[in-house]
Amino acid sequence: MEKYNPQKVEAKWQEVWEKTKIYQTDLASDKPKFYNLIMFPYPSGDYLHMGHAYSDMGADVYGRYKALNGFNIFMPIGYDAFGLPAENFAISKGIHPKKSTAENISHAEKQLKTWGCQFDFSREVTTSEPNYYKWTQWLFLQLYKQGLAYQKESPVNWCPKCMTVLANEQVINGLCERCDTEVVQKNMKQWFFKITDYADRLIKDLDKVDWPESSVTKQRNWIGRSEGVEMDMQIADSKEKFSVFTTRIDTVYGMTYVVLAPEHPLVDKITTDKQKKEVEKYKIQAQKQTEIERQSLEKDKTGVFTGSYAINPFNGEKVPIWIADYVLFGYGTGAVMAVPAHDERDYEFAKKYNLPIVQSIAPVVWGLGNAKFREGGKTIVRPQVAVIVKHWAKDEYICLDWEKFGWKSFVIGGIDEGEKSEETAVREMREETGYQNVKSIRKIGGTIVNKYYAAHKGRNTIAPQDAYLIELEDGEQAKTEKEHTKFHKFEWVPKKNVQKYLTLENHIVAWEETEEEHAFTGYGELVNSKEFDGLTSEEAKKKMAEWLEKKKSGKTQVNYRLHDWSIGRQRYWGAPIPIVYCPKCGVVSVPEKDLPVELPEKIKDFRPKGTGKGPLASVKEFVEATCPKCGGKAERETDTMDTFVCSSFYYMRYPSVGNDKEMMEPNVTKKWLPVDMYVGGAEHVTMHLLYARFIAKSLHDARLINFDEPFLKMRHQGMILGPDGKKMSKSKGNVVIPDAVIREHGADTFRTYILFMGRFEDGGPWDPKGIVGIKRFLEKAWGLYDKEIVDNEPSVEETRILNKTIKKVGEDIDALRFNTAISQLMVFVNFLSSQKTQNKKTLEILSIMLAPFAPHMAEELWEKLSGKDSISLEVWPKYDKNLIKDETVTVAVQINGKVREQLIINIEAEENDVLELAKASEKVKKYVEGKEIKKVIYVKGKLLSLVVS
RNA sequence: GCCGCGGUGGCGGAAUUGGUAUACGCGCUAGUCUUAGGAACUAGUUCCUUAACGGGAUUGGGAGUUCGAGUCUCCCCCGCGGCACCA
């Protein structure tokens, strides 16, 4: 056989595959189906890049493995061709997007055909073709029928450069996903899909899918479900009211003001004349800001008092109403109750504007050895103080060491009947330390509820604790009474050691508060909350919600971060929205039989205008329409649809490509959907994947399909970085194009190498040097078929390694651990190449195992070896687990945890035999002689651990 | 700030339930072949120490549990990804 020439071999087999149509799936076959989907590429003008290759090749190896295991694989391919990037590319080149898109697609297809993937090119879709976007429009109509497509006037994201509206998902850190321009908010009438109706199911059904945990979490966070209550608030001396949304109704007694978003419609009505000027100024200022400025965290909180007050329904107290841009109009009710004591943002705001801070939740600390309350014990309440005493000259603090009890604390004491806690603090300090003169005293944080079971008194104790920081004036010290000091001694502890010194949790909490004051945002027990005092936050949430509901001034409410999907685009290159506006009948949908509403090819200028209307508005022939209802003159909608609408159902269309009557052929759809495995980038989790799930659910509810989760199993490929370890980009000059690698080394080498580099789900830097290792490996494998091939019984050793390899390679591919599968194949090939003659059966199996990674080469070797038809018609070999076991194993002997000897033993050897062998070993003797073996642990076939002393 | 993931030789990376850390590949070193080689092949290669046998150290740092920890627990440091005033 001649030397391995990948270019020649690959050209040959690609031709054969094309001619025999071996990868055109027979969708009607009886074999079990396996829908192996990759995310279809977006041909925007650049080459398909490393990321495409990596993803597709990984998916293909997996698919080929499944095929060899008896599945009928369907791996379709298509092009996501509408949308901003394709259009922007065309604009930059000054050509019509239809033309540039066609060129890009033909280029991409050429590339794809060299990759050695089992793509079924016979069922290609191109989303910008009328025979496809007819179904995009059809989909719109289905949603419209269900009331899931609607128009509303609302603030939307507007990209000034792309001159179009964007969905929330397409705004990344306040920048346009495509051109990195700062997005501004505009009030516009727009088409939306009501994805929020499905928010709960989109969360709940994540339990049904086998997806990476991180992606499930990302979607969950993106949807952002939060449970709380909506509470009505009456405006003082007015009939007006509004509601606030809060997840922490338990903190309601700590409310000291409320905040409305500047856009809140009530603002104008309630602003007093005196405040009008300032409020107006603030509103204008807020409106001018871009999202980035508004969301900037460095920015100080700002706000303006409206002059009006609202009434807290729980205690009837009046609280001032402010407006501030830290409250978002688009979330909840656009109004919040502010509880500075228990919310960081409110705290910051209150500090800045000198608004009162009232504690209503006290943290609960189980003190004194964490002893929980005991049943039947008497429970008493004993308020106390903790006193942090600071030295008059040094940065040191008095700490007490209660030797008998093992506590270390600050000065501590009970508040006597009728005594103020501040007085207690001073009194206790004097009694216990003798120091007399207070320079300053300051309360630290809020009340902390300390609970413990006092064993010596046999009772449960609740001890609300106030903490004070006392700074001493000087060192004047009186003699202390013994009764106060008999259990502890005191010492001065430098500041940096205090934290470590303390053992009582409640004192540690108090100490932390001296450093930096902040809101306590955790759960605890209610204080200052009238009849709700003493409840836990959890209990209070329930009781308070019930209280509100009974009073009919509130209800429990679930809110989502997710917004409805804004789908209209004021751009040319997209599927027209199939709607006409009739002066008589109003908004009328185009009947299904009239689809597609074709995108006019002839247009003077397809560039966006930025007027809020798309370029289609300038095409008279397009705009002018007849009303499908009354036959009168009407006007077409001129917005086109977001590309993500096109890509939300393409996988449903593939099996029915060719059918012009139905989007989905019922039988084929029933058989082939949902998708069994979906491989693609993680960057689509909160866009495409979320939209596709929503669309599937809506069609399911319309009884058009019988599944409601489109992608049962999904995995992401990692990112291939440039050789410098940075993300590939033209500006950095570190882009490696897959075609160049394929031309030089061949697709088989490329596939195997890129999958060998690291974990598929991790990706990593492209190292051009390493590829020779794979080349050597494939050449070495190729060379085996040149050796003397005999048809005999393979050796025991060969059988063992063969069976091991079958097991590991199969299991690894199944789990997408391609790198370790390849490494095992290397071990196997290295073993075989050390042998003079090769066993025919072994080489047959090797070819099959190589086939997923190096399909062209495997075909060639298979043809030479067996003379049979394509290797992809073969069956993945079975292994015999009995043949994997080694007869002898090396057992490590550990002495006190260190490996001192290795023994070769029979795998069946028992502990005693191994121990005897070990004792006989010189090396072991050295460590054991004259000592006592205290413990022996034997892990069968692995190691013997001896503990000696 | 919050959520998620990760940190292992010179490099990419292996390591079922805790059980011989560094598989496989690159690179490097020596050798073979060669007019030559940035080709191929063979052998070696975690680090320190030793002529060698051997000994010691080692999975970001520190503590802990265990006969035994890359793997489990706690604290800290660093990197990556996502979210980011969501009430």
Write structural notes for this entry:
By secondary structure, the chain is of the alpha/beta class. Strands 10, 11, 12, 13, 14, 15 and 27 form a 7-stranded mixed β-sheet that branches. Strand 20 and strand 21 (407-409) form a beta hairpin. The protein is flat and about 105 Å long. The structure holds one RNA strand of 87 nucleotides.
Features:
single chain; 949 residues; alpha/beta; seven-stranded mixed beta sheet; 30 helices; 44 strands; flat; RNA-binding
Q: Percent of residues in beta strands?
A: 15-25%
Helix content: 25-40%
Q: What is the mean predicted local confidence, pLDDT?
A: 89
**What is the CA-based Rg, rounded?**
37 Å
Distance between the termini: 65 Å
Report the oligomer.
single chain
Short structural summary:
Helices cover 34% and strands 25% of the residues. The chain is an alpha/beta fold and 949 residues long.
How does the SSE layout of this entry go?
Elements: H1 6-20, E1 33-38, H2 50-68, E2 72-74, E3 76-79, H3 84-93, H4 97-113, E4 120-126, H5 130-145, E5 149-159, E6 164-166, E7 171-172, E8 175-176, E9 184-193, H6 199-204, H7 213-223, E10 225-235, E11 241-246, E12 257-260, H8 266-270, H9 273-288, H10 291-295, E13 303-311, E14 318-324, E15 335-338, H11 344-353, E16 361-362, E17 364-366, E18 378-381, E19 384-390, E20 396-402, E21 407-409, E22 411-414, H12 421-433, E23 438-454, E24 459-472, H13 482-485, E25 489-494, H14 495-501, H15 505-515, E26 525-526, H16 537-550, E27 554-560, E28 565-566, E29 568-569, E30 579-582, E31 586-589, H17 620-623, E32 624-626, E33 633-636, E34 640-641, H18 643-646, H19 650-653, H20 666-672, E35 677-679, H21 688-701, E36 714-715, E37 719-721, H22 738-745, H23 747-756, E38 763-765, H24 771-784, E39 788-790, H25 796-814, H26 818-833, E40 837-839, H27 840-850, H28 855-866, E41 888-895, E42 898-906, H29 911-920, H30 922-928, E43 933-939, E44 943-948
The chain binds one RNA strand of 87 nucleotides through α7, β11, β15, α11 and α24.
